[in-house]
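Weekly modeling sync, notes
Attendees: S.R. (lead), two postdocs, one rotation student

Agenda item 3: backlog of single-chain predictions. S.R. asked that every request posted to the team notebook include the full sequence so nobody has to chase files. The rotation student volunteered to paste the first one in as an example of the format we agreed on. Action items at the bottom.

Example entry:
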Amino acid sequence: ANGQYSFENNGHTLTVQVREGKVGVVTSSCRDKICQNTGFTNTEGTSIVCLPAGISVTVEGASHQDAVTY
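Predicted structure, as returned to the notebook:
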C-alpha cells in the first residue's frame, strides 16, 4: 500500500516510501546515503540495501509485499 514506513536497526533510521507501485528510501540516518541515492524501483528481484543499518528492501512482486527485512 502507498505510504511511508520507518525502520530502526543498528542505531540508524530509514524511511521507506511506497508510491505508484515503486519503493525507495527517502531518508536515512546513515553517513553514506547509498540506499537513499538508489532511487525508486519496481523491478522484481531488485534490492535497496543499507549496510550500516543492516536493512534491505526487496521488490518481490505486485501481489506480495514484504516491505523490509533486517
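Discussion: group reviewed the output briefly. The beta strands are 3-9, 12-19, 22-28, 47-50, 55-58.
Action items: rotation student to repeat for the remaining queue; S.R. to check formatting next week.
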